[in-house]
């Protein structure tokens, strides 16, 4: 007997509530009951200041105030306004000038880019490859379209990126399916905070090139949602030239999001940018992705497209935005370092962390431990392989407190 009344399950397992939003609402209820001082809500994936207020870059907020009604009320073309399509390439690539054919298609956030890449470069029933530690909505996005997520072990025994496990899975799935979509979320991976090194990238590209000899197509979707919170913008774009040295049947796509970089989460703006070896593959990319957009959300909202176009049309404004973000990035990195320091003191093992919004802790009883911590007023997210702490949403003082609390709960 199905648990469903009228709705069709269609192979999906739909929980009664979204896990993260559910935990977060329990945290809010406890705050209402006991006061904010008694609760640490480390579940939220947005950057908050030390007082718990959402950080909104003031330079971006000023630009929003100067908009004309037509800038936000009008439809944008399906693939985005022309100025945005150019601006978003500059935002994603920085000073790197790709030699391949690039096309940008606007999407509602990075989520839309992930959705359209899976829709157009895999088939129903296919497995999409990503690491065992991963952003849970990849499963939802894939499941909505009759695909599933398959994984490789992200870290080896020494805590380094597991290039061998990656290579093995790429080989296995591309051989079994003929084509493969791979999602790599780096730098400042969610949920671990890991950034692939250039050596890791060499391993990744070698594996893909070797599998591509027999495969029909391999799409490498690089989800860079946190790229501008990883550290120096240019340094963390140094992997980009690695994406060019691949044969024609390998298509790198950048999933770019304005949510974190411009603190424009709710405006739902992002883009998918291809790096194709031929003009025909790039033109096909634009055509099929715009078609998918039309059939799912139609046009993306215009507001943030205009904002990004204005930022990239005004070097002074761009400088202001970058400087302001750098300040918050420092705040976030300091929180991460504080967390690492305290974890070391408490002898708490964490997954290798470089930067970003989250730190992860391996744990084989994640649901039990997080429930116990909730009773003590600490709200974190249980994942399949451990616990995720959002350092983006709590103060440095809280980052110093959390490791000891988690260690004690894990020992009970
Ligand atoms: C790993 C990862 N990818 C992509 C996204 C996409 O976010 P959005 O659709 O809000 O741009 C997020 C947001 O939390 C994320 O954590």
UniProtKB/TrEMBL annotation:
InterPro entries: Aminotransferase_I/II_large, Asp_trans, PyrdxlP-dep_Trfase, PyrdxlP-dep_Trfase_major, PyrdxlP-dep_Trfase_small. GO terms for biological process: amino acid metabolic process. Keywords: Aminotransferase, Pyridoxal phosphate, Transferase. GO terms for molecular function: identical protein binding; pyridoxal phosphate binding; transaminase activity. The keyword rRNA processing does not apply. It holds the Pfam family Aminotran_1_2. It comes from the Bacteria. Transmembrane segments: none annotated. Its cofactor is pyridoxal 5'-phosphate. Residues 39-401 form the Aminotransferase class I/classII large domain. The keyword Transferase applies. Belongs to the class-I pyridoxal-phosphate-dependent aminotransferase family. Homodimer. This is Aminotransferase class I/II-fold pyridoxal phosphate-dependent enzyme.
